[in-house]
Amino acid sequence: MTQLTNMQVRDIEALVHPYTPQHRIREIGPLVVEKGHGVWITDSQGKEYIEGLSGLWCAGLGFSDEEMIEAGIEQLRKLPYYHLFGAKGYEPAIELAESLKEIAPIPISKVLFASSGSEANDTQIKLAWYYNNARGKPDKKKIISRVKAYHGVTVMTASLTGLPNNHIDFDLPVARVVHTDCPQYYRFGLEGETEAEFVARLAASLQALIEREGPETIAAFIAEPVMGAGGVIVPPDAYFAAIQPILAAHDILCISDEVICGFGRTGNWFGCETMGYTPHTISVAKQMTASYAPLSAVLLPQFMVDALDSQSAKIGTFGHGYTYGGHPLGCALGVKAIEIYKKRDVVGRVRAMAPLFAERIRRLEEHPLVGNGRSKGLIGGIELVADKATKKPFDPKLGVGGQVNAFLQNRGAILRAMGDTLGLCPPMIISEAELNELFDRLEGALNDGEDWVRRQGLRG
């Protein structure tokens, strides 16, 4: 058993750690983080780590950016909290909404703030229902998500999430949610099937699902441009072009969940631009404030704002909102983050670093543990397999991905294991030298993992 420090013991006694095997927390021992600077964090024992996942896909500007800190301090001194209920407003919320409208890839009429990505996506579903009620289609309420999608952890968004551990014993998914195929060619393409044939099959499957459920019952389709927590799944380039006409033909809203992909991560301001599709509404969070404070938003087109207005006139008010939605601190930091992304040309920086990032991932595919690598911009993943030739996965109960991730943490770098896929999503400010150092440490951890697999007799 790990010898725990006093701080680790206090942590275990006080906290429930999300997405952690609770029964093993004392054995694992928590990593107690004390400070961060740039792409580095330091634990309570003084050890430094490269933060290769930007925390949780979100610290795009890294840690301790002085401009962000000063913007936060200034806002806290001026107006530390207020709300937007009852026709109240303040400059940071107004300015951030205007900034979001300016950079959005589609025409946006208004912005509705929330606190987290889960709240934003939950709001999206409520608004889709509200919109269809407003236009006299009360049966048009089902939402199509995808296997391996991740859209949050509220009752509704966890239902949209297409991962079994988010459903088991939470009594989810709820009604009105259906899942279509995961667009991962490497794992779900049939033997002998080309990528084009795979896309055509998924489009036909979506069409069949819509016909089976009844298009008059389906309100919206929600998608991440690049699927994050499901394993960093990059759809084939032709995927969205194939499915979007099907949605349009059946009057189904397209919601782009840009919580991870927004604000430069994929080499454009928004992931839908990178992946070549045009949504009706957009959810944003995480890198909107570079995660210096919690904040999310739903970007709404004029036709949905019209529905809010008409229903408000009918009902007497718009009965939705969050206490901290549009918090002045978060909004001020969002304004500053977008300003920094522009003046430092973070989108251009991601594009410049993307070829090196992709090449280092490609090189990892040569490792005996790695079956597949994929990336887009500065987000990527490597999938570990028991047999490269057959793509045979390890038994999930063996926890090979988690073991390799532990080896990596010992080597001073932090990623995230999603089953046997390791996700990479470094702060967008990472230097070439730091990026190479991250991959060098990852290669070392993979070597450790291969040795461990052989010692365990998991490979001949």
From TrEMBL:
UniProt cross-references to InterPro entries, sorted A to Z: Aminotrans_3 (IPR005814), PyrdxlP-dep_Trfase (IPR015424), PyrdxlP-dep_Trfase_major (IPR015421), PyrdxlP-dep_Trfase_small (IPR015422)
Keywords assigned: Aminotransferase, Pyridoxal phosphate, Transferase
GO biological process: biotin biosynthetic process; gamma-aminobutyric acid metabolic process
GO molecular function: adenosylmethionine-8-amino-7-oxononanoate transaminase activity; pyridoxal phosphate binding
SUPFAM superfamilies: PLP-dependent transferases
Family to which the UniProt record says this protein belongs: Belongs to the class-III pyridoxal-phosphate-dependent aminotransferase family.
UniProt name for this protein: Aminotransferase
Species lineage: Bacteria, Pseudomonadati, Pseudomonadota, Alphaproteobacteria, Hyphomicrobiales
